[in-house]
Amino acid sequence: MSAVMRYSTPAIVLHWLVALLIFAGFPLGVYMVDLPLSPDKLKLYSYHKWIGVTVLLLVAVRLGWRLTHTPPPLPDGIATWQRRASAITHGLLYGLMIAIPLSGWLMSSAKGFQTVWFGVLPLPDLVGKDKALGDLLAGVHQALNFTLLALVILHVAAALKHHFIERRPFLQRMAWGGKERT
Amino acid sequence: MRMTGLILLAALAAPAANAVEYQTVLPKQSTIHFEFRQMGVPIKGGFKRFTTQMAFDPARPEAARAQIEIDLASIDAGSPEADDESAGKLWFNRSVYPKATFVSSQVRALGNNRYEMRGTLTLKGKSRDMVVPVTFAPGNKAAVFDGGFVLRRLDFGIGEGMWSDVATVANEVQVRFRIAATGN
Q1: Which of A7, A30, A146, B18 is the most buried (most CB within 10 A)?
Q2: What is the DSSP letter of B169?
Q3: Terminus-to-terminus CA distance in chain A, angstroms?
Q4: Where exactly are the structural domains of chain B?
């Protein structure tokens, strides 16, 4: 069997870094919202926002990399509809990884809390304090997140299906075991 | 004789146009704001309801006096959640201490329409002496007094227990006020 084509090293690093941050930031967000007000709640909110801003930056870099580098081709024998679904899913994942932190940042501004990255770097408030807008953006942020959750489940399930059920060496595409596409 | 001399001096120091004692406060043009940091994030707030009694004659600043009473229920602490939280025992304990008061004790002219006001701030049953710089800006309709000071919230037990962690909510609260008053 020929060596598996894999993504470039920067793409792999960015993929797993962003995945790790999403897997930390998402449950943190779900957990923190219903906590009674306390210093711990304020800390968790800040950590959540710092994670979100970091994701936004990393995804901007990722998107730049993705648009200038061709990913390894999907293995032969994957149905056309699956190739199309894969392209759509990846597009939506990128869109959400940008839209979700952005909606959180705007929501925070609308609720009257500037986002200060790591408590040091203030991000500009792109909208003023506005309770109705804040509540609306909270709903948008939540809806986008649960859409992301569904797509991530699909994304992981598809990768696992190709790898374990169809028995293609698929997971290596996003790992360092394979041969980098040149 | 000495009395006459003093009156003469006062008359010389204060031109007729300035010989007005500001004592009618205009509540709508008067504000009390504050700002503090929470996890490094600046949070703005203020009090909507407060009453001010004052008397200030630029010719006799040493005789000036001011008394401010703040209705703590009129707080804007940055968010509805924080407004509610601030009423509790750990913060203002508002059911027991509904008001904050400031009473001046001494006013000293620093020149250039700047003054130093000393007085006592009472908050949550604790009284502390404060030194507050105030600038005076005479206007056509009303004079404006701008002042500010840094309040260390823990001096007054504002934010006790878990909230005494100043790494989360800073100890320093920058307070700024603007009092507009006329001499009528």
Answers
A1: A7
A2: B
A3: 19
A4: 20-182
- The yes-or-no verdict on residue B6 having pLDDT over 90 is no
pTM for the whole structure: 0.88
Separation between Cα atoms, residue B79 and residue A111, nearest integer Å? 7
ipTM of the complex model: 0.85
Residue ranges covered by each domain of chain A = 5-180
Instruction: Tally A–B CB contacts below 8 A.
Output: 39
Q: Identify which of B55, B58, B53, B56 has the alpha carbon closest to the alpha carbon of residue B19.
A: B58
Q: How far apart are CA B34 and CA B173, in angstroms?
A: 7
- A69, two tokens: 């580098």
Per-residue pLDDT reduced to its tens digit, A67-77 = 999 999 998 88
CB distance B38–A119 less than 8 Å?
A: no
Across A82-99, b (16+ Cβ under 10 Å) vs e yields eeeebeeeeebbebbbbb
Task: Match domain B20-182 to its CATH number in 3.10.180.10, 3.30.479.20, 3.10.50.40, 2.40.128.110.
Answer: 2.40.128.110
Q: Given the structure tokens 């008394």, which residue do they identify?
A: B67
**A114 touching B (Cβ < 8 Å):** yes
Q: How far B97 CA sits from the closest chain A CA (Å)?
A: 22
H/E run at residue B90: none
How does pLDDT run across B131-145, given as a tens digit for each residue? 999 999 998 889 999
The pair of structure tokens assigned to A62 is: 């990722």
Amino acid at B137: A
Q: Would residue B95 be called left, alpha or beta, if left means φ above 0 and alpha means ψ between -120 and 50 degrees? A: alpha
**A168: nearest Cα among A81, A70, A71, A79:** A79
- Structure confidence at residue A76 (pLDDT): 87
Q: What tokens does A95 get?
A: 């869109």
Which B positions 73-102 lie with beta carbon below 8 A of chain A?
78-79, 81-82, 85
**Cβ contact, residue pair B40, A46, below 8 Å:** yes
A5-180: CATH architecture: Up-down Bundle (1.20)
A103 DSSP assignment: H
